[in-house]
Amino acid sequence: MALVIDSNLCPQNHRCPLINICPTGAITQTEFGLPVIDRSKCIQCGKCVRKCGMAAIYTVAD
């Protein structure tokens, strides 16, 4: 499984709160741009999927 951030659902107008929720620091963001998930750090715990208020992060099959 892989995590995807949907740029059509992510508002990209604020600092992404999921950056602070990710236990491994796998989510980063430059200014108010689309957040990026570092797959080498992601442990697929699902916290970001559950906490994203816009449902912009979801899992897909590899």
UniProtKB/TrEMBL annotation:
The keyword Cell inner membrane is annotated on this UniProt entry: no
InterPro entries recorded: 4Fe4S_Fe-S-bd, 4Fe4S_Fe_S_CS
Keyword Ribonucleoprotein among record annotations: no
Alphabetical keyword list: Iron, Iron-sulfur, Metal-binding
Domain 4Fe-4S ferredoxin-type: 1-32, 33-62
Positions in coiled-coil regions: none
A Pfam family the protein falls into: Fer4_6
Sample GO molecular function, one term: iron-sulfur cluster binding
Protein name: 4Fe-4S binding domain-containing protein
Organism per entry: Paludibacter jiangxiensis
